[in-house]
Specification:
The protein is an alpha/beta fold. It has 11 helices and 12 strands. It has 3 domains: 1-30, no CATH class; 40-138 and 273-298, Rossmann fold, CATH 3.40.50.2300; 141-271 and 302-308, Rossmann fold (3-Layer(aba) Sandwich), CATH 3.40.50. β6, α7 (169-184) and β7 form a beta-alpha-beta unit.
Length: 318
């Protein structure tokens, strides 16, 4: 029966079909542990998320998408926490590991290279010489440029980008795209860099925008890179009596539920984290089964809301 159900051995197609029908009727399911044991595996894959941002909805949604997809591959998902000693990663019995938003200089990445299990990443690893088994990238740049064109059409000419250092691929790519876009329109790119990738995006971005405005910088649009950071910019604007969007346009590079219910609602890019989590699992499962890796990506979608829609639809400035 095992040969008939597994597709192995010398079993006629008619017999294989009949055995499968009977097994389904009886509700039979092969023991997952036994199946993985035969392949020399433990039947579990690991997911590494940025520790400072585990409370953000983006990463929670990504983990849920990965967990659901792992079940479809008969794999258990193990969430790997931040470790004081990266060498502790060897204590986790997993067949492969997914690393989301790998950061430049993270000692965990070096340790993963010694484990001898396949590693795939969610977003490109900017570490020089990095060569993992595969990568799933979010195609956020098309939506980001669409966002920039949208605020430009709404009259913005002095746009400020607030975000962390370019230690992650999508942050570095966003900053490069912003500089190119400004250069094409002879605009001065204003970038306010946060001390590090924020674990407290609302507070950190609020402080950054407060500093930006107190210095006398002239801005008519603020775009927050970190998720929920736009809420901090919203607080800073309200403190100074600035109206959104009449006096200042506001947008976020990452959508979240809080931006959908804020007053006003905030324009943002939906990066589809659950889909990213699912495609990461598909990629790793394929690697474990010997399938050739193919470039994989997840599209981003711009969602225009009240924070960038001026009622008078300002005429384009010269």
């Amino acid at each position: 029966m095992s040969h008939a159900l597994s597709g192995q051995g010398r079993v006629s197609e008619a017999t294989r079909t009949r055995v499968s029908q009977i097994a389904n009727a009886l509700g039979y399911m092969a023991n997952p542990a036994a199946l993985h044991l035969r392949k020399g595996r433990v039947g579990s894959i690991g997911l590494c998320l940025p520790d400072s941002n585990l409370t953000l909805p983006y990463y929670l949604d990504l983990a849920l998408g990965a967990a659901k997809q792992a079940l479809s591959h008969r794999l258990a998902l193990t969430l790997i926490p931040s470790l004081d000693k990266p060498s502790g990663i060897s204590a986790f019995g997993v067949d492969g590991i997914m690393v989301v938003d790998p950061q430049l200089g993270d000692p965990l990445l070096e340790e993963l290279g010694r484990l001898g299990v396949p590693v795939v990443t969610g977003e490109r690893d900017v570490t020089p010489g990095a060569a993992w088994a595969g990568t799933v990238e979010t195609d956020h740049l098309a939506a980001f440029v669409e966002l920039l064109d949208h605020v430009y059409a709404q009259g913005a000419r002095m746009v400020a980008l607030v975000g962390p250092p370019p230690d992650e691929a999508w942050v570095a790519d966003t900053r490069s795209a912003f500089a190119r876009w400004c250069g094409q329109r002879s605009l001065k790119p204003q970038v306010r860099e946060l001390p590090s990738f924020p674990g407290r995006p609302i507070i950190d971005v609020q402080q950054a925008v407060d500093d930006l405005l107190s210095e006398g910088s002239i801005v008519d649009c603020i775009i927050s890179v970190p998720e929920e950071g736009a809420l901090g910019a919203l607080l800073a604007a309200h403190r100074r009596g600035l109206r959104i969007p009449q006096d200042l346009l506001l947008a976020s590079c990452v959508d979240s539920r809080s931006l959908q219910t804020s007053v006003p609602t905030v324009t943002a890019i939906d990066l589809q984290p659950r889909l990213l989590g699912a495609r990461l699992v598909d990629l790793l499962a394929g690697v474990l089964n010997g399938a050739p890796t193919q470039p994989a990506s997840v599209p981003g979608h711009l969602i225009i809301r009240a924070s960038t829609m001026r009622s008078d639809r300002l005429a384009a400035k010269p």
